[in-house]
């Protein structure tokens, strides 16, 4: 989000994020600390997907994709030929419904593709920030927004997984607008904090978002629940914001309201306040897994339009002390190579530019045609400066923070702000660690810029090769020891790069609820297991136990899948090991416990793609298999365990019934009498008739997750239904 902050001095703008259900919104003396405290939660430290104290974030934002920003994609707005259309809200309000929706679907499906993710990976970047608005989940109260973004969000997470990229999800717009910027969805006044319902809706969305991705922390590593909050509006806003952060801590760090910490990082914003002003708010001793997000733009300060190239470089080189003045992990979550607001000229409603004097109250400092556009008019000096400015900013950010995220990856006609255009034009290096100007922050760099090319040995940009043996990182991590033979760390163990692995659909059904459900990448590995004779430290469960080798071994099994799921979702499990009649190679397993104690029963069993597993320790799991592990207490076996299957409509309209069908998974016979219930609202439910059919009607827009249950059967898969407001 790139918008001028009236009344603020340009420089580092720290954006903070937590999410949850806010309550007391207008205390005049103090705010209530209602987040989880160390005395009431398990402080078992999660195995962070990224070791931010070792590995630098080098990322890019996909701004303008799932939430629109006129300066990034002006054609979507100018094509409407309606001066009332200035943001995504008015685009939906005044544009032809069908025409706009088709334009949005075309934009979502084509502006960012898997090819972009591949190019991001090839550029040496390791993080992708995906901004998205609240309306992707919740459209109500007469709001005109279009929906359909969530399919593309999930698709993007899948692309990131395929390529080894990490994802930060940012809520770019909240109900009522948290900053009045067009990128928040609704340009104008800041009303988010004035209405408790706005804050509550925001908190509910963050709860759903964090819960949905809590089992996918191999990819989704951070959530920022509010972008660019308008702290400059006054104390009342900051009071509401701080409470929102505290309430949100439990929703993101403790998904599903469990007592065990998850591995998703909280990204908090300082709302235009200094980094030092946030000291003590979320101290690491009590609130671990919190990162503070700082934005640097050399565009809107009073003297920015008149600065020379050297002055722009000198200004960022002087940010070392500012960045270091934080007790939290600090990331520069937005920055750019642009030094002007000339991109505003692409869309009249943006108000013109302060660089060429077309903005009200400004004077002319230069020609915007030479500073923006497709790059064809960029001078060699300007391109040289942008390369130097890139090195000055990345060097400063990496020396004094956990890394950076560039804004943005792609634009229609503002090449100076586009990372992809910079790669194509040569002012951004194809090797992100390359330094043509290694001493950029010394002297007068633009005048004396003749240094040779240097390839800095920096922390690996590929998060599948984590930095090791860095116990006391210095301020400038330029020469760490990297183990190139490692690819992934789980529960403290390093997974070899050549380890055999498969992606499966994994589901663990406890006594009263689902313990785990989602896509899982599981690998062949050793692990520790409790046995009747104590602790067994070298258990394979891959067909190679004690020197024996079964056909096709080593391979993954449901045991390795449970172990990997437990690492990713942070639950414990134990089991009993029994030796088979053919010796150690045919170990069979009796699950002892999986997940929370209240979800365990007398025994567990498992199916691999509808085949009952007799010996989980040696039965192979293949690519694409569906593995269902479940408590057998109360489940009928005749002549197999009945597992419910739930299918039907995944989209609908408020007030209109949505038809669902529940069957027995193996026989496909209807499961009459099965009850379908919404996971977060038990009042939304229905009972299937003898034909297995049931209809649900939703009274408000939103995203709903439903499952089916029936006595004697294993509960069904989760079905997600997106309900939109009636047109």
UniProtKB/TrEMBL annotation:
Signal peptide: 1-23
Hydrolase in keyword set: yes
Domain of life: Eukaryota
GO (cellular component) term, any one: cell surface
An annotated GO BP: glucan catabolic process
Keyword annotations of the record: Glycosidase, Hydrolase, Signal
Keyword Lyase assigned: no
Example GO molecular function: beta-glucosidase activity
Domain Glycoside hydrolase family: 103-338
PANTHER family linked to this entry: GLUCAN ENDO-1,6-BETA-GLUCOSIDASE B, GLYCOSIDE HYDROLASE FAMILY 5 DOMAIN-CONTAINING PROTEIN
Family that this chain belongs to: Belongs to the glycosyl hydrolase 5 (cellulase A) family.
Protein name, entry field: Glycoside hydrolase family 5 domain-containing protein
Originating organism: Moniliophthora roreri
Organism phylogeny: Eukaryota, Fungi, Dikarya, Basidiomycota, Agaricomycotina
């Amino acid at each position: 989000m790139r918008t001028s902050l009236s009344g603020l001095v340009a420089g580092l703008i720290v954006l903070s994020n937590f999410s949850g259900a806010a309550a007391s919104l207008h205390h005049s003396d103090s705010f209530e600390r209602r987040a989880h405290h160390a005395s009431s939660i398990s402080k078992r430290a999660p195995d962070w997907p990224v070791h931010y104290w070792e590995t630098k974030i080098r990322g890019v934002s996909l701004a303008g994709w799932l939430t629109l920003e006129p300066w990034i994609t002006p054609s979507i707005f100018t094509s409407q030929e309606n001066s009332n259309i200035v943001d995504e809200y008015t685009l939906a309000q005044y544009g032809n419904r069908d025409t706009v929706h088709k334009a949005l679907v075309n934009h979502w499906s084509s502006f960012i593709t898997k090819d972009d993710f591949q190019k991001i990976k090839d550029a040496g970047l390791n993080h992708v920030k995906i901004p998205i608005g609240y309306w992707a989940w919740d459209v109500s109260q007469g709001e005109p927004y279009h929906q359909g973004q969530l399919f593309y969000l999930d698709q993007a997470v899948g692309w990131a997984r395929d390529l080894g990229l990490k994802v930060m999800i940012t809520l770019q717009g909240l109900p009522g607008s948290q900053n009045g910027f067009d990128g928040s969805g609704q340009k104008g006044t800041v009303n988010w904090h004035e209405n408790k319902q706005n804050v509550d809706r925001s908190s509910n969305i963050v709860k759903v978002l964090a819960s949905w991705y809590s089992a996918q922390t191999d990819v989704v590593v951070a959530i920022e629940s509010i972008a660019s909050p308008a702290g400059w509006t006054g104390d009342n806003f900051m009071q509401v914001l701080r409470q929102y952060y505290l309430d949100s801590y439990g929703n993101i760090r403790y998904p599903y309201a469990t007592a065990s910490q998850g591995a998703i990082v909280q990204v908090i914003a300082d709302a235009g306040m200094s980094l030092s002003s946030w000291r003590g708010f979320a101290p690491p001793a009590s609130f671990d897994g919190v990162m503070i997000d700082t934005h640097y733009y050399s565009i809107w300060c009073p003297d920015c339009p008149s600065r020379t190239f050297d002055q722009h470089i000198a200004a960022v080189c002087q940010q070392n002390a500012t960045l270091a003045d934080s007790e939290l992990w600090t990331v520069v979550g937005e920055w750019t190579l642009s030094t002007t607001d000339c991109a505003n000229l692409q869309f009249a409603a943006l108000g013109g530019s302060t660089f060429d004097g077309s903005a009200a109250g400004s004077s002319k400092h230069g020609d915007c045609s030479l500073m923006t556009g497709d790059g064809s008019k960029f001078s060699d000096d300007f391109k040289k400066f942008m390369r130097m400015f890139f090195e000055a900013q990345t060097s400063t950010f990496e020396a004094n923070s956990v890394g950076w995220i560039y804004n943005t990856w792609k634009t229609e006609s503002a090449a100076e702000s586009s990372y992809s255009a910079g790669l194509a034009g040569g002012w951004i290096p194809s090797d992100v660690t390359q330094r043509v100007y290694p001493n950029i922050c010394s002297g007068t760099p633009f005048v004396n810029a003749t240094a040779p090319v240097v390839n800095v040995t920096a922390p690996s940009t590929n998060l599948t090769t984590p930095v090791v043996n860095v116990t006391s990182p210095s301020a400038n991590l330029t020469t760490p020891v990297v183990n190139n033979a490692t690819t992934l760390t789980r529960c403290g163990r390093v997974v070899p790069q050549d380890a055999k692995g498969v992606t499966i659909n994994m589901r663990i059904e406890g006594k009263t609820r689902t313990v785990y459900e989602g896509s899982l990448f599981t690998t062949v590995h050793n692990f520790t297991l409790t046995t009747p004779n104590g602790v067994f430290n070298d258990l394979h469960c891959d067909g190679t136990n004690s020197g024996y080798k079964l056909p096709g071994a080593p391979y993954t099994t449901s045991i390795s899948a449970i172990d990997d799921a437990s690492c990713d979702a942070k639950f414990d499990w134990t089991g009993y090991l029994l030796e088979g009649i053919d010796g150690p190679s045919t170990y069979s397993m009796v699950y002892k416990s999986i997940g929370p104690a209240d979800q365990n029963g007398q025994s567990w069993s498992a199916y691999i793609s509808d085949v009952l597993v007799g010996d989980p320790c040696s039965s192979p799991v293949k690519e694409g298999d569906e593995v269902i592990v479940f408590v057998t207490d109360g489940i009928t076996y005749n002549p197999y365990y009945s597992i419910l299957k739930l299918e039907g409509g995944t989209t609908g309209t408020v007030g209109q019934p949505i038809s669902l069908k529940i069957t027995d998974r193996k026989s496909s016979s209807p499961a009459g009498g099965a009850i379908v219930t919404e996971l977060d609202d038990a009042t939304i439910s229905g009972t299937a008739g003898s034909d297995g059919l049931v209809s649900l009607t939703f009274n408000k827009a939103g995203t709903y997750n439903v499952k089916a249950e029936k006595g004697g059967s294993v509960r069904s898969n989760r079905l997600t239904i997106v309900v939109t407001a009636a047109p």
